[in-house]
Amino acid sequence: MKKIHITLLLNTIAFILVLVGVYIMLHPAKNKGLLTSSGFANLKYFTVLSNLLYGAAAFFTILYILMKYAKTKTFTFSFPLWFQVAKLVSATAVGVTFLVIAAFLGPIYGHASMYQGSNLYFHLIVPLLALADFLIMEAGSTFTFRYIWLSIIPTLIYGICYLANILINGVGTWPDTNDWYGFMNWGLPVGIVIFFMNNLMSFGIAALLWKFRRKSA
Predict the structure, then answer these.
(1) CB-based contacts of 190, cutoff 8 Å, min separation 6
(2) What is the DSSP string of 60-109?
(3) Does residue 124 contact residue 51 with C-beta atoms inside 8 Å?
(4) Which residue in 141, 34, 158 sits closest to 94, CA to CA?
(5) Is the pLDDT of residue 139 over 70?
(6) Which of 8, 77, 101, 104 is the most buried (most CB within 10 A)?
């Protein structure tokens, strides 16, 4: 089986699972576990937004492969640089979701509650598929290190909006808190440190993916 076939399979599975996760997310009776809200209110979570981003990237990957095959009648082709960078950005975003849950929020709130309902897909399965997808993705040439910085864009934008909302509207009280991730539990200075750590984490994940991809290529 060629790499392109594996890429098509991984992206098809990931796209379907994102849709399954969204379906469960929009039906509160089916959605259990922590860090979930009712219906479209779940769009406030970076978890959901990052998975939607990767779901879109997976859909366009499937579309790109099928269009190239329809034109060339072969699966012997590689992905252009801009496509590779876009996949790195989306894979890094869900990679951050996976790592934050596994290493930070999971130990605090319990891993079992982090992998229920839609979050089983959003916190675990889709991120792992995304990381595997990027590492085996067929590339004509690998891109240079300077593109790694683009991978912090999702966490940077989300973090700015998250902090701005708290500074403007206040932390609030449960269940109507604006600090649904609890980053302000130790005060604003620690919350700002966490903000920078999340961006540093994005950069680190992207750098590792880039490094391993270069070796595999």
Answers:
(1) 183, 184
(2) HHHHHHHHHHHHHSSS---B-HHHHHHHHHHHHHHHHHHHHIIIIIHHHH
(3) no
(4) 158
(5) no
(6) 101
CA 34/CA 40 separation, integer angstroms: 16
**First vs last C-alpha separation in the chain:** 17
pLDDT at 140: 61
Contact 117, 17 (CB under 8 A): no
The residues facing 79 across adjacent strands are 139
SS (H, E, C) 143-195: CCHHHHHHHHHHHHHHHHHHHHHHHHHCCCCCCCCCCCCCCCCCCHHHHHHHH
Q: What average pLDDT does the segment 194-215 reach?
A: 91
Weakest-pLDDT range from 158-167, 174-183, 186-195: 174-183
How far is Cα 102 from Cα 172, in angstroms, rounded to an integer?
Answer: 26
